[in-house]
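Hey, sorry to bother you again with one of my protein questions. I've been staring at a protein lately and its backbone has me curious. I owe you a coffee for this, so here goes:
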Amino acid sequence: MMSESGSENAGDKQPQPSSSTTSAPTSNTKIKVLVCGEVQGNFSSTFKKIEGVNKTSGPFDLILCVGKFFAKGSTSPLKELISGEVTIPLPTYFIAGDPDDVVIMDALGLKNGGSVSHNLQYLSGCGLKEINGLNIAWVSSIIDDSHKQNWKENNTVKQRDLEKLLHVIPAEKRKGFRGVDILLTNQWPQHILKETNSTITPTNEIFQIKLLCDSLKPRYHIASGDVFYQRQPYRNGLKIGATNLVSRFISLASVSNTTKQRFFYAVGLVPLKLLDTVEVEPPETTASPFQSQAPIKRQVEDNSEGSSKKPKSALEGLQESTENSLIMPRYSHHFEDKKGKNPQHDKKQNNQGKGKGKDKKDSQPVACWFCLSSPQVEKHLIVSIGEDVYVALAKGGIVPEHVLIIPITHAPHSSILPVIVQKEMSRYKYALQKCFAGEGKTLVFFERYLPYNSKNELHCHIQGVPVPNSVSHLLVPAFLEEGQKVGMKFDEIDKDTPLPIQQPYFHIELPSKQLLYTTDQPLPRVPIQFGRE
C-alpha cells in the first residue's frame, strides 16, 4: 500500500526481470506493478521518484501511467524524453490523457501505438493486451458523449475502437471468462460511488466506462482524477469455485498536485489465467454499483392493488416461443430494493473534467419507468423476463399487442449495450415475429435515441408494433413521407450495419428493409410520437 506521499511500504522482494520480455509467469509468480497518475510532462522528476520507489519497495516489473502524459503547449520535455536524456528505469506503458496527447503521438508516427523511446510504450485507442502475463485493457484519450463535437475528427475515443473493446470477449467464450487483470482509463465509470458513503462528486463519470467495467470485470481499474480515491472492493459477478471475484477502483491524482494527494499505487497480483484460488472476500466488499444484485425470481407476479391485465392471444404463446428461440432466463430481478426505495441515477457529468473533492449536493431522484427496481414500473404489463432483457406491453399502445423490448440495465440506447444483451434482444424480436406470424401479422420495430436534454438519462426500449401482412408494403413510403415532414432524412442500411454509439439516431426495422436517421447537427424537434402516429 502506498503512503500519502506516494512511496510504498516495503514488501516481499520479487526477482528482477532481465528485460521487458520476461519469461512466462508461473502459478506462484506475483507480478508487481507501479501505477502512476498524470505526469503532465514532468518526466525527469517523475522517473527519478519511480527509480527511488523501485529501490526501496521494488523491484517492480512494469509501470502503468494514466491521465495526461505530456505537457500542454511545450515540446521541450518531449525532446528530452525521445533523446534519452531522461532515464526510464523500468518498462513503462502509458495511455493518452486527452486529444492533445493523441496529436503528439500521431506526429511521431505512432497513431497505432508503439515504442516512444527505450522502456517507454504508448497504448493507443482501445485495446486488450497481455503484458508480463497480465491481461491489461485500456481506453486512451477521453470519451466525448456531449454530441456537440465530431467524434470522428477531434481525437477522442473512436466508436469502432470502443465497440471492439466492449465486445472483445465473445458471448460464446463468456462461460469460462474470469475478467481482465487491469483496466486503464482517464475517466470514471458512471455510478461508481453507488453503494458507498463517499462525499466526493466526480465530474468525469462516463456511461461507456461503466459498460466496460461491467463487461470486462477488471480486478483493478485505475483511473485519473484531481484527487486520490480508493473505493471499497465490489463483487463483479464472477467466481472461482465458491469464492466471489471482486473489482477494485482506484483514481490517482497528478504527480504535480500541490495537496499531497497520492499519485503512485503499487499492485501485486498473480495473473488471473494462473489463479486457482482467490483471497477471502474482504469484509468491506459491497454489491456491484453497476448491476442488480437481486435474488432469482423467474416469474413476474403482482399481488398489489388492482388486477393484472391478461395478454392478448398472440402474446400468450410468447414464453413458449422465447424458450424455443433459446432465451433461457436464469436471473431475475425484484421490483424494489431492500428498503423499497427508488434507486437514484446520477446525473450525467461533464466528462472533460476530473473527479474533484466537493460535498455532494442533494438532488431529487428521478424515477425511471423501465428500471425493474423502480416503484414506477408497471408490473402488470410485463410479459417475460429474460437474463438481461424483458418484454412488456406498451402503456397506451397503438394496438393492444404493442410491445416494448427493454434491457434490464439502465442504458440510453441499444448500440452501447454489450453484444450478449444485443443478441438477447434479437432473439426476443425473432420470438415475437414467430408468434405473430400465425395471426397473419408482421412486426415493425423502432428505437428512438434523440436526447434533447443531456441531463436526462434515457432508458433504452425498442418498440414493436404488429401490423397485418396485407398493409406491410405501405410502411416504407409512410415512414419516408412522415420523416420528410419533420426534417428527418432516412438512409437505407443493411441489417448487419452497427448503429452509432455517439450520435443520436432513430432506427426502424421493417419487413423489407431497415431505415436509419442520424445527425451531427443540432437536433430538429422530432415529435415525441413519431413512429406511433
